[in-house]
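[recover] target loaded
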């Protein structure tokens, strides 16, 4: 059995492409936050007033954390693909499905438990 004593190397271009894709997908979820912030910026009296507001800070924090999270998630998946020696698209699809199921399982089980308690 092999051990992993280091962080696997991943091509920077793979991280960039994956981070852009993941970040774009997460921006679709954050669109209402940015839309509301845009409308508040239009209503602000000056740019300085808006940039000092809590809404601007919240939108910047959401955007930045989404970008960093996308890059970390992309590195993790790419490192896992490299560490497991997955060489085919089919193997990567299986691995991606397992990652998705593992990340979705807590919310699905919580949903099932909450529905079960409302039926009793």
């Amino acid at each position: 059995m092999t051990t992993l004593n280091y962080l696997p190397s991943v091509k920077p271009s793979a991280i960039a492409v994956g981070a852009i894709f993941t970040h774009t997908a997460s921006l679709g979820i954050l669109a209402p936050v940015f839309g509301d912030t845009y409308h508040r910026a239009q209503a602000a009296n000056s740019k300085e007033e808006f940039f000092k507001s809590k809404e601007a800070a919240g939108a910047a924090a959401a955007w930045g954390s989404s970008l960093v999270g996308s890059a970390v998630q992309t590195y993790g998946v790419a490192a896992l693909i490299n560490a497991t020696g997955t060489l085919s698209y089919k193997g990567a699809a299986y691995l991606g499905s397992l990652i998705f199921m593992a990340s979705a399982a807590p919310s699905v089980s919580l949903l099932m438990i909450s529905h079960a308690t409302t039926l009793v």
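[recover] notes: The two ends are 48 Å apart (CA to CA).
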